[in-house]
Structures are given as structure tokens and as C-alpha cells.
């Protein structure tokens, strides 16, 4: 490969690495937001359970309403946990891809240096 192709290929790989890093940061922010919502839902569930326990001591119509709220809350928690789990696997995949891209970047950096040295050596011989 000539020097210009190596440099442009290295530039493309570096650009992809940087874009992947930005995307990773965005996904990490989304994951953190999801974890916060999950924590809030679990606190809400605890509150519903406490309300349900106090209402059971005084049976009224509110028991069925609280049970519905508790079921809805439980479904939301399961949904958030599923999103969180899939996001974790995506993070691992993205980290692996980024490591491979940086290895490729390093490889092309070495190739560029070798190509420059070869061109310098042939230039000095002439």
C-alpha cells in the first residue's frame, strides 16, 4: 500500500473510533437514566406495598386500586430491567469493537511509519 492510502485508511479508522466513543458515551448516559428510573420505580413499589399493608388493616375499595398500581409498577420494573440487561450486553460488544478498532489504528500507524521510513531510505539512496 502506498503512503496516501495508509494515511486515509488510518484517518477513517480513527474517525470510526471517535464516533464509537461518542456513541458509547451517549448509551452510557441513557443507561444511567434508565437505572435512575428503575431505582425510582422500586421505591414507588415499596411505597405501594406499605400503603397496601396499611389498607389491608382497614379493608376498603382502595385495595383493588393499590393492587392495580402495584401490578403496573411491577411490569414497568421488569421492562426497565430488561432494557438494562440488553444495554449491558451492548456495552460489552461496543467495548470489544472499540478495542479492535484501536488495535487496527495502531497497526496502520506502524505501517505508515514503516512506509515513511522506506520512502526516506529510497530518497536518500538517490
Question: What oligomeric state is this?
Answer: single chain
Rg of Cα set: 28 Å
Query: Which structural class matches the secondary elements?
Result: mainly alpha
Q: What is the beta-strand fraction?
A: under 5%
Our measurement of the CA-to-CA distance between the termini, rounded to an integer number of angstroms, reads 21 Å
Pick out the low-confidence regions: none
Form type: rod-shaped
Helices and strands, in N-to-C order? HH
Task: Please tell me the total number of domains.
Answer: 1
Approximate helicity band: over 70%
Number of strands: 0
Global mean pLDDT: 78
Query: Helical region count?
Result: 2
Q: Note the main sheet.
A: none
Transmembrane segments: 7-26, 89-108
Organism: Flavobacterium beibuense F44-8
Keywords: Membrane, Transmembrane, Transmembrane helix
Protein name: Sensor histidine kinase
Please give a structural write-up.
The protein has 126 residues and is an all-alpha fold. The chain has one domain. The chain is 94% helix and 0% strand. The protein has helices at residues 3-57, 62-125. Helix 1 (3-57) runs antiparallel to helix 2. The radius of gyration is 28 Å and the shape is rod-shaped. The mean pLDDT is 78. The chain crosses the membrane at residues 7-26, 89-108. It comes from Flavobacterium beibuense F44-8. This is Sensor histidine kinase. Keywords: Membrane, Transmembrane, Transmembrane helix.
